[in-house]
Amino acid sequence: MLNAEELSTIETPAVVIDLEVVDANITRMQGAITSRGVNLRPHVKSHKSVDLARRQLEAGAVGITVSSVGEAEVFADAGVEDIFLAYTIWAGSARRAGRIMGLHQRVRSFSVGVDSTAGAQQLANATRGADRPLRVLVEIDSGAHRTGVRSEEAGDLAAECQQLGLDVVGIFTYAGHAGTSKDARFSGAADEVHAVEQAIASLSAQGIPVGIVSAGSTPTAVISAHAPITESRPGEYIFNDADNVRLGTCESLADVGLFVATTVVSTAVEGQVIIDAGTKALGREGNAEKGYGLVPSLPGSSLRLLNEHHGYLSIHEGVTRPSVGDVLIVVPNHACPVANLFGEYIVIDAGTVAGRWPVDARGHLS
Amino acid sequence: MLNAEELSTIETPAVVIDLEVVDANITRMQGAITSRGVNLRPHVKSHKSVDLARRQLEAGAVGITVSSVGEAEVFADAGVEDIFLAYTIWAGSARRAGRIMGLHQRVRSFSVGVDSTAGAQQLANATRGADRPLRVLVEIDSGAHRTGVRSEEAGDLAAECQQLGLDVVGIFTYAGHAGTSKDARFSGAADEVHAVEQAIASLSAQGIPVGIVSAGSTPTAVISAHAPITESRPGEYIFNDADNVRLGTCESLADVGLFVATTVVSTAVEGQVIIDAGTKALGREGNAEKGYGLVPSLPGSSLRLLNEHHGYLSIHEGVTRPSVGDVLIVVPNHACPVANLFGEYIVIDAGTVAGRWPVDARGHLS
């Protein structure tokens, strides 16, 4: 981590990444997934950074996963040639259809999620006249009950996609319910495997081969990385966060590579300090009980309340209260929304500030 | 509001403002505060838009309130000449000190909040050598127990500020606890008045006259707009939101001028639809019980859960479920974090898209 002297030179609030930890996280996940015979396709929504995506690709990722057309465009502009938009994008408006056609024509392998006939129809319309059909993956609901058809309906939707002229290259699922507890990680990973096995059977019954079987988020990636799953899409693992430590998806706070640097701006009220990191720096991820982030340098402290530009940090009895002007490090509960709130990362390497990297796809929501 | 045809041309998620409602909100608050003999100094953290600040100033605002050095710089660059940084900024680093000196030298009236001797010392150091002393307002805690000294200590801090060479132009307070219920609005406003009265006495005992007495947020502004308060700093009122309707700070949803336009991207799970507005479009403002925003076109619906890029909207029995591709309007619970998540506003006027305005100070947190 950064030495105290350099820490005090950072204007706060700021998002800081520790490149040694980030690189170790990239290497560890890549090794864990590859050694199980599965491809890694990291979700870049977690970092939105071209520099970080390049490091993941250089480490062996087969491509990237994105969550919006705008994100896909940022990484396509940067030369990424294999992009899966793991989202049931609606291509209805003329402008949106044109952007999807643009990505399809200039990215070597661009694929999109579908879970409805209507959505597939719009994607087919949007890419009509291209020199090859658009690649789609049918989304399966493995228990998150968010998006995705039931496994037994996957074959019907895949057949409809083919009739519409789309290239059905596989299936994908997201077990959002696996991120709620340590036990849920294992049951959620089992749900992923069960759901895709059923879906493969459903497509096979229609005579449709399944090339890509994509699953895996940071909580489940290593657990479900085995046949029939062929690709995994974790995102958070590049940074990790306090929730990942709680879930056991990383070993300890030493595996967390993203922080918010914040300054104590008031000590006027006894028993607490006020820091300059509020919801516009940390999001509102957490609750009053577990707090909205951890401050490891202050054992027993609780970041119990956030306003937009203020965090209320209760100081444990017997712990020396920091002074106005002290810079503290907050470990977010959830890293992904944090990067999106800042324009740039402060990148530290070997304990010193090595540069500032843009959060290239910040706010590219549509 | 926008007609359905134009609505369907918006790429979503997007933040949309209705200029007729916004202008009515500006006029109403300006009239309510001015008619009570109090100056209005809107907090621009709510909108972060130079265009909108200009409308507030043209309507009669005496200046603006900001929450960070970066925000102050954006509005100073746009030519705003009266800026109150209502924040206990720490000027410790050389770079930060230089930025504060820069604002002090180029803005006709630039003032800053203080609630500690150490903070005041740094501000004095930062602006040493300027052709006039930096203007500061002493912050008073009126019950939010966030920042601000106790009223009875205000005179001591004011005297220390003067000894440090700062120009003590007044006091300010923020009754954050007033935004929790309708009753709390009234008791919070009374707390503001009581706290500043005591603080004025404390400064008077030191022989320090109090020029500016600043209080008032959207929940309290109209209630506490009377002597000895001379300035009010509401922000949200320019847009209003679902929480303001609940609190009674505006009359109905017809007074809300900011929305998130979102598209239904999945209807795969019965009883709900999935929209493309998640925490990266709405923040995580709300809870499962009250929901994370309102969808007025679907009575009884509940936006019960948000992921980063997905909202789970439960549809009330008997209400026709929207289809994939339908564009819906979400009224946020809290407007302020929403604008900060987008690069631009889609501005509608008289039911048609009138332009796109940048969210100029988005993410200028430090």
Give an overview of the whole structure:
The structure is a homodimer of 366-residue chains. With 366 residues, chain A is an alpha/beta fold. Chain A folds into 2 domains: 4-16 and 251-358, Lyase, Ornithine Decarboxylase, Chain A, domain 1, CATH 2.40.37.20; 21-239, TIM Barrel (Alpha-Beta Barrel). The first copy, chain A, is 30% helix and 21% strand. In chain A, the strands form 2 sheets. In chain A, strands 1, 10, 11, 12, 13, 14, 15 and 16 form an 8-stranded mixed β-sheet that branches. In chain A, strand 3, helix 4 (69-77) and strand 4 form a beta-alpha-beta unit. The two termini of chain A are 35 Å apart. The mean pLDDT of chain A is 97. Chains A and B meet through helix 5, helix 6, strand 10 and helix 10 of A and helix 5, helix 6, strand 10 and helix 11 of B.
